[in-house]
Amino acid sequence: MPFPATDSRLELLSDWLKSLEGRFALELGSVAVASSDASFRRYFRVATRDSQIPSFIVMDAPPEHEPCQPFIRAATLLSRARVSVPHVLAKDVTRGFLLLTDLGTRTYLSELGRENARDLYGDAVGALLRIQSLRRPAWLPHYDDALLLRELQLFPQWYVQRHIGHTLNAKEQGDLEATFHHLIARNLAEPQVVVHRDYHSRNLMILDDPMEHGNPGILDFQDAVFGPQTYDLVSLLRDAYIDWEEEAVLDWVVRYWELARLHGHEVAADFAEFWQNFEWMGLQRHLKVLGIFARLYHRDGKDGYLKELPRVVGYARAVAGRYRVFTPLLRLFDALEGREAAFGYTF
After folding, report:
1. Predicted pLDDT of residue 9
2. Among the four residues 68, 231, 314, 317, which has the most C-beta atoms within 10 Å?
3. Residues near 161 by Cβ (< 8 Å), separated by ≥ 6?
């Protein structure tokens, strides 16, 4: 296998795959990197000698950093929602390895365009509503105020101070704490559902051979929680990796809201209220993502996310500019960007 001799994890993985070679007809010499994500997990693709199943995915998840159990539990849960997720075929949770079905290489991000966006987002919304129909199992953590606040704190720590190099003064610190309080209160007042927590174009797949539950294939769900209804919707439609005209986003949100009501989901009866939930949930996520992307660069040496920062800042500024309560946050962004504040409000 073409692994560096100094990578002890890959040596362990090689030994594990050898133990599975006969059972799954693995071509051990074919192992190649499939993808990595913003964590310690890595993914490899291994070919087989079976023409009906040409390849599998191997997950390498160091157990001291990324235990396998949350992935296995979440995969089992989501499969009950009749959505397409990888099946766990073999596992070594002690060493942190999983053999998974392969959902292919065609991400939403790589193939979304104006001609297919309506259909692809329609599939994604349908799958999301099925996920949100699930009842919460006892093991699924709550997306509570402590977790929401801990995520928000990544913004001042990693984006404001570490990335921009700005030290908050007492007023800015107080204003930011008030902003966080307003956001969390609104987020927690929403109906609570099963939340994927990273439901966006890099984790949704167009399946060459759709599984029984159809498109999209869904990845990276191991951090699932029970939390605000609009979280996954805003992850999907105000995506850190691809953006759309506001009219298109509004149209897709209306369609989700209409379908949710049609299928008996608990949802705000007034669309204006639902839209505000969507916007405020998005602002929480955008601030968190700014902190995460900055941390990935400064702590982990991953610079590939820096190019997405302007898009996420744009999302955050747009929402902050539409609600007077977030005027202090907009001022902070102006200070960070070294430009005069120019406010225009809509309510």
Report:
1. 87
2. 231
3. 167, 168
pLDDT in tens, 201-220: 999 999 987 666 789 999 99
Contacts 24+ apart (CB under 8 A), 328-333: 328/172, 328/175, 328/176, 328/178, 328/179, 329/175, 329/176, 329/179, 331/175, 332/160, 332/172, 332/175, 332/176
Alpha carbon separation from 50 to 25, 46, 47, 89 (Å, rounded): 7, 12, 9, 15
Nearest to 19 by CA among 54, 45, 58: 58
- What does the alpha-carbon distance between residue 123 and residue 125 come to, in Å, rounded to a whole number? 6
Q: Can you list the residues of the chain whose pLDDT is less than 70?
A: 1-6, 36-39, 210-212, 339-347
User: What letter represents residue 28's amino acid?
Assistant: L
Q: Which CATH class is domain 108-337?
A: alpha beta
pLDDT score at 341: 39
Distance of CA 265 to the CA centre of its chain: 22
> In terms of pTM, does the model score above 0.90?
yes
**The CATH number of domain 8-101 is 3.30.200.20:** yes
What count of Cα atoms within 13 Å lies in the side-chain half-sphere of residue 137?
13
CB count within 10 Å of CB 342 equals 8
**What residues does each domain of the chain span?**
8-101, 108-337
Please give the pLDDT value at position 1. Answer: 38
Q: Which two tokens stand for residue 292?
A: 């995460």
Q: Is the peptide bond before 216 cis (omega within 30 degrees of 0)?
A: yes
